[in-house]
């Protein structure tokens, strides 16, 4: 092989090596960030949002107990048998669209809808929790 052929082969290899290194570096930087950070909400994040929306301690505690039993604070929780969805297990889940089009992924929207439901049907989250305790559902 001539030197010029070797150089032509070596240059693409260097370019590929540099590209692979850059991709690996970018991959490491991307993996350090949470996956789908804008749509994935942890239980603690959802609780913090609810706490801001429900400043009264007794009402927050009642709301929290219901959500803990219904979904474990999982925004994406789905009941396989009924189809109930979200933090407050709305049935059907798309009822929460009345609180916002982002009802599938936004804990604030789900909390807003759940609070409205509890207030309109039971008078408050505490009323909803009392009903839940007596019936195992709300």
TrEMBL record:
<dbReference type="InterPro" id="IPR008258">
    <property type="entry name" value="Transglycosylase_SLT_dom_1"/>
</dbReference>
<keyword id="KW-0732">Signal</keyword>
<feature type="domain" description="Transglycosylase SLT">
    <location>
        <begin position="62"/>
        <end position="130"/>
    </location>
</feature>
<dbReference type="InterPro" id="IPR023346">
    <property type="entry name" value="Lysozyme-like_dom_sf"/>
</dbReference>
<feature type="signal peptide">
    <location>
        <begin position="1"/>
        <end position="37"/>
    </location>
</feature>
<dbReference type="Pfam" id="PF01464">
    <property type="entry name" value="SLT"/>
</dbReference>
<protein>
    <submittedName>
        <fullName>Lytic transglycosylase domain-containing protein</fullName>
    </submittedName>
</protein>
């Amino acid at each position: 092989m001539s030197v010029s052929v070797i150089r032509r082969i070596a240059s693409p290899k260097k370019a590929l090596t540099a590209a692979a290194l850059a991709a690996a570096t970018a991959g490491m930087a991307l993996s350090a960030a949470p996956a789908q950070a804008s749509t994935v909400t942890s239980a603690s994040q959802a609780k913090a949002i609810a706490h801001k929306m429900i400043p009264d301690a007794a009402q927050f505690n009642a709301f929290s107990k219901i959500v803990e039993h219904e979904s474990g604070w999982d925004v994406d929780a789905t009941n396989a048998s009924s189809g109930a969805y979200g933090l407050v297990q709305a049935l059907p889940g798309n009822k929460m669209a009345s609180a916002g089009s982002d009802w599938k992924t936004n804990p604030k929207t789900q909390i807003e809808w759940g609070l409205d439901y509890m207030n309109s049907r039971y008078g408050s989250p505490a009323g909803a929790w009392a009903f839940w305790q007596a019936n195992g559902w709300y």
